[in-house]
Amino acid sequence: MQAQFPLAVETPEAALAAAPFGMFICDGNGTFQTVNAALEKLTGLSADELVGRRGFESLHDPAELARRRAELPCLAAIGARYEGEWTYRRRSGTPVRVVLALSPLSPPLPMSGAAARQPGEVLYVGVVVDMTRYAQSEARLWYLSHHDGVTRLPNQTLFTERLELTIARCQRSHSAFTVLIAELGHLRKLRDALGLHAAELVLQIVGERLRGLFPNDGTIASIGGSQFALLTNETGAAADAFAAEALGRIAEPIDYGGTALNIVASIGIVAYPDDGDDAATLMRRAGVALSAAAAVHGNAVRRFSTALEGQAARRFQIETMLREALQRQQLHLVYQPQVTLANGRIVQVETLLRWNHPQRGMISPAEFVPVAEESGLIEQIGEWVIRTACREAGKLLRQTGNLPRVAINVSPQQFQRADLFETIREALDDAALHPSYLEVEITEGALLGDTEQALHTLHALRDLGVEIAVDDFGTGYSSLAYLTRFPLNRLKIDRSFVTRMSGDPQCLALVGAIIAMAHALKLRVTAEGVETPEQAAQLQALGCDEAQGFWFSRPVTASGLRNLIGPLGAG
Ligand code: C2E
Ligand code: CA
Ligand code: CA
Known about the structure:
By secondary structure, the chain is an alpha/beta fold.
């Protein structure tokens, strides 16, 4: 037997001495044979006072023992184990609540150094656990595992428990409630800029403010990252009003050492029982609504709908497929000419990404680029676009001796990366392409994020000779301030203006004003989405420099472009 347990080298006394709770060994009369340090501490009595002198029953509170005598079995009657809750009296007289466990040691353990036992004499081992301390540490453990360390609010685990309880209660009473998930935007950026302390402070303050929304009932929790979950009895329009108030409280500026921090947040809403009748479904669907709200990039509230869920499922599917698209060479580029209105020449082409999925066919960039941006895949895909566009352009130049400037679309996320400039410079180098052949199209969003990083990259690109265009002008925040602050070459008027222009004189006037303003700032203007000769003529009359649209050409492949531009292209 011994050989089977080579690790059991500890003597019983050593194991007993080190135990974190009181332990003793007593003989058949209950007299202590051995006690450990924890028992001495618990009782306030030393081993000398206990061993051979007292029986274990003497530790009991006499009054309680007298009352409950029948519950404490005589040792010989104990089968495998006895366990009961009792009150002990310390030496000082203070009571202590313990759990007492007794088991016979049968056959008697050979105690090292102990005198030989009479054959048949059975020893008993007692374990005494201090319940007051145990209860405290258990409560602490429970608290720690059910609350968020930063905000001290209930965490995901506790929120789920409460949600389940609420569901059970509302199932019985046929009542409804609402769950909201609020997420703070830009918290990571804030942490990078001002440090962890600032980010934690924001979470704490927002947590406090949200807690203030619940005067008597309801539940609020920190459910990880920068998300809060709220449970309210309000439903319908009252719940919407509640969400709006929550958003308002979050948006109040936070004073951080004299700086006003403006926090944006998104809120997703689900209703019980309409949107789901179990906690997991409700939380998942609240997350779907939250993603839709977050896509707005500002303070926004969205309610869950099955249409949103369909979108979310499709987005997830696209993300999964997109991860493989690069490796499996399912992506390629097409080029759409931009024509000088005065002479009809192709001065420039815009690079547009195409995804040809073997089973699903063409998937529009309008659908997959936002997914790529959200999942972070855009950084990898964007780099591929930059390299491929430069390589194909270099080839075209060598083949035809002629090359219009090539514009590439760069997402705001790519602009947040410090290495964007290096990637572009390298791609130009590798393709032996002069930087003046390249234009970068950015959206207004890129100029609104981390302005320092964006400004740095823009200046570096301009110094290199790369041109900068603002895409979709007029659709975003339309803050004109950045037109003077950033080193830009071109404005691209969004297609929606061009479409509305013909039937809407006010819109026509607006396009005219944009063109005049751009020229005053020494920017060139390209109109997007020109589909008719009338639109082209109107734009030319307004002084627009270039135009792009189906009227001139749809996007074409690299070889299609070679045919369009090169006298040698036919070869
Ligand atoms: P965008 O940058 O505004 O690109 C112009 C879009 O308008 C293209 O759609 C183009 O095919 C379409 N278009 C051009 N002329 C006309 C016209 O006369 N009428 C109409 N109805 N549409 C016209 P596409 O290729 O589907 O791209 C959609 C969006 O996807 C782009 O909008 C851009 O935001 C994004 N995208 C495309 N390629 C890339 C890329 O390589 N990188 C990034 N970050 N985004 C890209
Ligand atoms: Ca574009
Ligand atoms: Ca555009």
